[in-house]
Write a structure and sequence with these properties.
Blueprint lengths: L2 H18 L10 H24 L1 H5 L2 E8 L6 E2 L1 H12 L5 E12 L2 E12 L8 E14 L2 E12 L5
Parallel strand pairs: 1-6
Antiparallel strand pairs: 1-2, 3-4, 4-5, 5-6
């Protein structure tokens, strides 16, 4: 088999494994890697709870000092002061709420990720009904002082879920 045939066989095997794995590569993960990924999902859920109950201070408590936030439709914020300023604009709006649920995550060494879906609620224009928005996110985590902290958080909007 020449190089093209080998490459085609590898690509085909990868596509079949991806399809059979429910959209994930069908490569068995070690128990330790699965445990670390599950731990990171739990930490992301705790991050959501802290943000829900404490607003901006809950959000900031999970951010690395040199963290980066890339909110949908806004400039990138780099570092604690810039992240605080960017996020304060949303969190100081009366009636604003942000909730999310991770759907996947993993880690290797001192870096990890979570990704999932989020929902924001904002006051409606002219006192009208609240405006609800949906989106997806990717958070890159890094270990600092033995704790996972948000290194990069990226979000972008999505259509509402199907009912």
């Amino acid at each position: 088999m020449h190089r093209f045939g080998i490459a085609l066989a590898v690509i085909t095997a990868g596509a079949v494994g991806y399809a059979l794995g429910g959209g994930r590569l069908a490569i068995p993960a070690s128990a330790a890697a699965r445990d670390q990924g599950n731990a990171l999902l739990a930490i992301d859920r705790d991050f959501d709870q802290a943000t829900s109950s404490k607003g901006l201070e809950g959000w900031m408590s999970y951010m690395a000092g040199d963290g980066i936030v890339m909110p949908d439709g806004q400039k990138m914020a780099v570092g604690e002061a810039a992240v605080r300023k960017t996020m304060a604009e949303a969190f100081t709006t009366p009636g604003f709420a942000l909730r999310w649920e991770p759907v996947d995550g993993g880690s290797s060494g001192s870096l990890g990720y979570t990704c999932g879906l989020y929902k924001t609620t904002r006051p409606g224009p002219d006192g009208g009904p609240p405006v609800v928005s949906y989106g997806k996110y990717l958070t890159v985590w890094k270990k600092q002082g033995g704790q996972w902290k948000v290194a990069v958080d990226i979000g972008n909007s999505s259509p509402p879920p199907l009912k």
